[in-house]
Amino acid sequence: MDPQSLIANSALDSKLGLVIESATPTEVVGRAPVAGNTQPAGLWHGGASGIMIESLASIAATLHAGNSAMAVGTELNVSHLSSARGGWIHGTARAVHLGHSSTVHQVDLVNDEGNTIATGRVTCRLLPA
Fold first, then answer.
1. Are residues 121 and 105 in contact, defined by beta-carbon separation less than 8 angstroms?
2. How much is the pLDDT for 105?
3. Is residue 73 pLDDT above 80, yes or no?
4. For residue 117, how many C-alpha atoms fall within 13 Å in the half-sphere facing its CB?
5. Contact between 36 and 89 (Cβ < 8 Å)
6. Is the pTM value of this prediction over 0.85?
7. Using 50, 70 and 90 to split pLDDT, how confident is the model at 31?
8. What is the DSSP string of 88-109?
9. Is 54 one of the catalytic residues?
10. Where in the chain does DSSP place strands (E)?
11. Measured between alpha carbons, how far is 60 from 90 in angstroms, rounded to an integer?
């Protein structure tokens, strides 16, 4: 499956400019530009971190669910650690738990220099399709 097709219908991910580079149930890697996703002070917006973290984890959960279930987010926790004024934010979602009825993914966001911008955890419930 083309990982980019997983967000083709997500208007919010499109507005963010999210690009999926690779995607499996255990790891999803993507990036988004800082430009267009800033707060009034010109820094990467914390809300953009939340969107990116939930999107990467939800894509992984969707891949784990396959055709038998639908993944829906039930919990999002984000710690904002730093920010960026330009370039790209790179994110990696890694599976912590892949169950029959739920998934948990840890997501780390870094800037172009590799400095951690935010870290988060997402729990998804898997509902029958």
1. yes
2. 98
3. yes
4. 30
5. no
6. yes
7. very high
8. EEEEEEEEEEE-SSEEEEEEEE
9. yes
10. 19-23, 27-33, 69-80, 88-98, 102-110, 116-128
11. 16
Region of 49 please: left (phi>0), alpha (psi -120 to 50) or beta.
alpha
Burial profile 46-56: b = 16 or more Cβ within 10 angstroms, e = fewer: eebbbbbbbbb
- pLDDT surpassing 90 at residue 8: no
C-beta of residue 21 within 8 angstroms of C-beta of residue 30:
yes
Which pLDDT value is given to residue 98?
A: 98
The residue from 21, 54, 75, 113 that is catalytic is: 54
Structure confidence at residue 81 (pLDDT): 97
Cα distances from 81 to residues 35, 58, 116, in angstroms, run: 19, 22, 7
Residues 97, 16: Cα–Cα separation, whole Å: 27
Maximum C-alpha span of the chain:
45
- Work out the pLDDT band at 77, boundaries 50, 70, 90: very high
What's the CA gap between 51 and 46, in Å, rounded? 9
Q: Averaged over 86-100, what is the pLDDT?
A: 98
> Which amino acid appears at position 15 of this protein?
K
